């Protein structure tokens, strides 16, 4: 995993966005994908709010995903493996980049067809514990025509369009990077979360 960690760090250092095309193994991505679908089938995926506010009709025009939080003490083997990888990444960041990270939080995210997320940052206005955002995608055979790109807005007014391909991870600073999710033309799935201190 260390090579994948370094891939994320190098991209972050050189361009503010770390990307690893094969951060998750094929088997782990498949297991997490199935977990997300099962949670949706069991009506455990709920409409997400904006910041730390309650869900409202106006929020849904801004943000269209459904989420379900991973429990830190989960007994699911795929979730345990994923969270162990994240713990290793946090340890690697702390030992090589002196980030001082102490915890994380992650949720499954599902954008149904026709849904997206308007331009935003991942930091709460009244709480700054989130230091880094991290997204791991669970979408097999994703194509440009499927939409759902992660759009990174740079300070020079240029934009980077990232396809949410299966196994890919994206890593960036929560309070610095403005980003959005383009309208998806098919269900778009990920595990999204934050590394915190």
Secondary structure layout plus pairing:
Blueprint: H1 2-15, E1 18-20, H2 26-41, E2 46-47, H3 57-62, E3 65-69, H4 77-97, E4 103-111, E5 117-120, E6 130-137, E7 150-153, E8 159-162, E9 169-173, E10 178-181, E11 188-196
Antiparallel strand pairs: 1-9, 2-3, 3-4, 4-11, 5-10, 6-9, 6-11, 7-8, 7-10
- Biggest beta-sheet profile: 7 strands, antiparallel
Corresponding CATH superfamily? q2cbj1_9rhob like domain
Q: Helix-strand pattern, N to C?
A: HEHEHEHEEEEEEEE
Strand content: 25-35%
CATH class group: Mainly Beta
**What best-fitting shape do the alpha-carbon axes yield?**
globular
Helix percentage: 25-40%
Total separate domains: 1
Instruction: Identify the CATH architecture.
Output: Sandwich
Name the structural class: alpha+beta
Neighbour order of strands in the largest sheet: 1-9-6-11-4-3-2
- Mean of residue pLDDT? 93
Total helical segments:
4
Total strand segments: 11
Query: What are the segments in which pLDDT stays under 50 over at least 5 consecutive residues?
Result: 52-60
Termini separation (Å)?
23 Å
Q: How large, in whole angstroms, is the Cα Rg?
A: 16 Å
Keywords:
197 residues; alpha+beta; Jelly Rolls; seven-stranded antiparallel beta sheet; four-stranded antiparallel beta sheet; 11 strands; vitamin c; HIF_prolyl_hydroxylases; L-ascorbic acid binding; Pro_4_hyd_alph_FE2OG_OXY
Descriptive notes:
The protein has helices at residues 2-15, 26-41, 57-62, 77-97; strands spanning 18-20, 46-47, 65-69, 103-111, 117-120, 130-137, 150-153, 159-162, 169-173, 178-181, 188-196. By secondary structure, the protein is of the alpha+beta class. The chain has one domain: q2cbj1_9rhob like domain (Jelly Rolls, Sandwich), CATH 2.60.120.620. The strands form two sheets. It has a seven-stranded antiparallel β-sheet with strand order 1-9-6-11-4-3-2. A four-stranded antiparallel β-sheet has the order 5-10-7-8, with no helix packed on it. Residues 52-60 have low confidence and may be disordered.
